[in-house]
Design goal:
With 107 residues, this protein is mainly α. The chain is built from 4 helices and no strands. Helix 2 runs antiparallel to helix 3.
């Protein structure tokens, strides 16, 4: 029988400090992954709506920046708040409220 050794390299969401990028059982927290996927789903829906409405490029870029922030292992509350403030200034207050609630689970 062919035996293979598999190893996960690179950053792992929820990894413990000192694992050198090698994931072991218990390092990935499913709750955090669910929180991130909820935020990403909301951002994807918002981006689709903005594309259909032909929103300015800077608004779409703010959504893309929020997406990048949400995917980080430790997103910055200050960066997320700043980007959400930019979006709420552009008339997206209701969607930003939902995003804000979803982002709170990541901090």
């Amino acid at each position: 029988m062919n035996e293979r050794n598999f190893e996960i390299q690179g950053p792992v969401i929820g990894s413990n400090v000192g694992t050198s990028g090698r994931a072991r059982t218990g390092d990935v927290h499913i709750g955090h992954i669910k929180d991130v996927s909820t935020v990403l789903r909301l951002l994807d829906e918002l981006r689709e709506d903005l594309n259909e409405a032909q929103a300015p490029t800077s608004t779409i870029e703010a959504v893309d920046d929020l997406r990048a922030e949400a995917r980080k292992p430790k997103p910055s509350r200050d960066v997320a708040d700043h980007l959400m403030d930019k979006l709420s200034d552009r008339g997206l207050g209701e969607q930003v409220k939902d995003l804000s609630k979803a982002f709170d689970a990541l901090f």
